Amino acid sequence: MKSSSYTVVMGRTPKVVNGQHVVVFDGLNETEEVLKAVLEPQGCRVNRIRQQHSDRLTSQNEVPSIVVVHDDDAENFTTGQPDWNRVPKVVIGSVKRASTIGQDQSTRFLVQPFQYAELIDSIESLLNQPEST
């Protein structure tokens, strides 16, 4: 039942900056659906990229604002998308694996199982953090 997943996050006050772009690298369909339901009404684009289609990313020449990636896919993500190394990330997994992705203030970790409200909070905190130059 999809609506039960959305009710956890739909009643919150969003804090997203308009015009941002969030990419879900692999992950579950439900993750993309929840993020679209919450973030798109606030002017934030959400796309899901499957690993087998990651070659299309470099041809798009668009670097997203945030990438949501599972720790199992993190190594493939970083090697396949060198231009995205500085993009803030939310890494979802069973253990914090800092060796897979450089850990700094632009990386958030969520340990499974997680609540979608936690994912939204992590994305919003990264979207609203000042960009480093």
Topology, element by element:
Elements: H1 2-10, E1 21-25, H2 29-39, E2 45-49, H3 55-60, E3 66-70, H4 71-80, E4 89-93, E5 107-111, H5 116-127
Helix pairs in contact: 1-2
Beta-strand content: 15-25%
In round numbers, the mean pLDDT is 75
Number of strands: 5
Q: What gyration radius follows from the Cα positions, in whole Å?
A: 14 Å
Cα(first) to Cα(last) distance is 43 Å
Shape: globular
Helix coverage percent of residues? 25-40%
Total helices: the number is: 5
Which regions contain 5 or more consecutive residues with pLDDT less than 50? 1-10, 98-102
Structural class: alpha/beta
Compressed to H and E, one letter per element, the order equals HEHEHEHEEH
Strands of the largest sheet, in order across it? Answer: 2-1-3-4-5
Biggest sheet descriptor:
5 strands, parallel
Quick summary of this structure?
The protein is an alpha/beta fold. The protein has five helices and five strands. A five-stranded parallel beta sheet has the order 2-1-3-4-5.
List key phrases describing it.
disordered N terminus, alpha/beta, 19% strand, globular, 5 helices, 133 residues
Describe the structure.
- It is a single chain.
- β1, α2 and β2 form a beta-alpha-beta unit.
- This protein is α/β, with parallel strands linked by helices.
- The N terminus is likely disordered.
- The protein contains five helices and five strands; from the N terminus they run αβαβαβαββα.
- α1 packs across α2.
- The protein is globular and about 30 Å long.
- 30% of the residues are buried.
- The chain has a five-stranded parallel sheet with strand order 2-1-3-4-5.
